[in-house]
Design goal:
The protein is of the alpha/beta class.
């Protein structure tokens, strides 16, 4: 499966999501905030980054912009998640460089489907660059 970085300032929810993702076969590294995510992404490569939109230090949009500015994470798929009933702002998510956005869910099937779709979109780009 995938090696994922999960960024969320809500400790309980982050642990639940990490457990669900692990049970689905993914390896998960957790970061409690944007600063932690940037440090993790500098140390190791991830197949995808899942980040909360609303965080106290930097929001998910700014985190995405900073990740896109780094050579090591320029092409890493990023899924922005929010618990807001309005969901993430699609225009802001795209402008920041996110590949996808969704409402936070603890439904394992829905979460796995969002990750699978994100990774499937990346594969055609990788196949084209290998040619």
């Amino acid at each position: 499966m995938a090696h994922l970085l999960l960024v969320d300032d809500d400790d309980a929810l982050r642990r639940i999501l990490a457990r669900l993702l692990s049970r689905a076969g993914h390896t998960v590294v957790e970061a409690p905030d944007a600063a932690g995510a940037l440090a993790c992404a500098a140390r190791e490569a991830f197949d995808a980054i899942l980040a909360d939109v609303m965080m106290p230090d930097l929001d998910g949009y700014e985190l995405t912009r900073r990740l896109r500015a780094r050579p090591e994470t320029q092409t890493t798929p990023i899924l922005l998640m929010t618990a807001s009933l309005h969901g993430p702002d699609p225009a802001r998510a795209r402008a920041a460089g996110a590949d996808a956005h969704t409402l936070k869910t603890i439904n394992p099937g829905r979460l796995s489907a969002a990750i699978d779709a994100l990774l499937a979109r990346l594969r055609p780009r990788e196949d084209a660059s290998a040619s």
